[in-house]
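hey so i finally got around to running the thing on that chain from the lab meeting. sorry it took forever, my laptop kept dying and i had to restart like 3 times. anyway pasting the input first so we r on the same page abt which one it is
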Amino acid sequence: MATLKLGIIGAGGRGINSFGSMSLRHPKECQVVALADPNRPRMEAGLKKLGIQCDLYEKPEDLLAREDIDAVAITTPDYLHETYAVMALEAGKDVFVDKPLATTTQGCMNILEAGRKSGKLVYMGFNMRFDPVVQRLKKIVDDGELGKVFNIQSQEFYDGGKTYMARWNRLRKFSGGLFIHKGSHDLDVVNWLMGARPVRASAFANVSVLKPEGIPFELEEGETYGPNCTECQARAKCRDGFDIPADTFGKEAIEADGYVRNTCIYQSEKDTHDQGVCIVEYDGDQVASHSECFIGSITNRLYTVLGDRGTAVADLHANSIRVHPRWSKDVVEHKIARGSGGHGGADPTMFRNFLDCLLNGAEPLSNAVDGVWSVAIGEASEISRTEKRVVEISDLLDPKSDFLR
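ok and heres what got predicted. didnt touch it at all, straight out
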């Protein structure tokens, strides 16, 4: 069996700590031979962290021009996914795209079209599908234990998510908005469990805390705070301050492109939300809601799935699912063991599936079509939030498109 030659576009956390690190577990099956990022100090620091050597390119186009590269992982900021995925497919490469597929529904469709024309794999990086709790929940639904599913409630509490307001994610022009960037995970899980297509969405979201009047400390006379945690005079007072990796995001990397990863979350300009909720209606008369909160005192994901024969409540941090059969006081509890590696073992399992698709002809557990539907809900939610109206999914795509079959 030939060793797959892989290229990575994007030397941030997902490119180095996730995709790059996972590739090292399979040295006989794959090898990272090239890394591309405009920030050379970040690339060099990333390779040092991985303990490998490979070719470095400041222009992803140069990496994609190499004929010997079999597949490319795209782990750039979200707004670049479409550009490099399409370029990679046109260059004859199989492609792994970290979530979301793109920042707009049309961008996703462009990737889908390029994938169909090239005949190459477009693997959608939805690692939540590989979470052990989510996988067990999917089996419970598919086995009919809950009967017909008609309502799903998704809740994500992510205290660490406040750092989105310190990074590029805070601007919709880079992320598409947090219903797309972060919500794409959960919205895909909801779509997967529901087994139906979304029809319309509505959303409400605001910056409720992470703004200047929300700073959780008193300033002394003449004292200032910000513009980032590294330089902040009030750093010792602020419990939300955080340090950045000195190797991949430190002084040399900042000097290369000006990107500061710990901009003050209270001062930063932003057009995303720190908390919000979207509501989705499906074509089988089902409904779903997804709430996401990037501030608070807990971090967890909860999925409540209601069917006409029972209800299941999945708690990802408790590694448990409680099934409540209808017309009974019984409770069936599932305790699920987690694996090792990122996202409770989900990342390595996803990477294994990606390799199996390329090497053994396996089917991807998540594909580009799944990516389209997730982003469509996210984009509709972002429009709804901004324009304060219900948005039809058909305004963003043709549900009958051959590309979506």
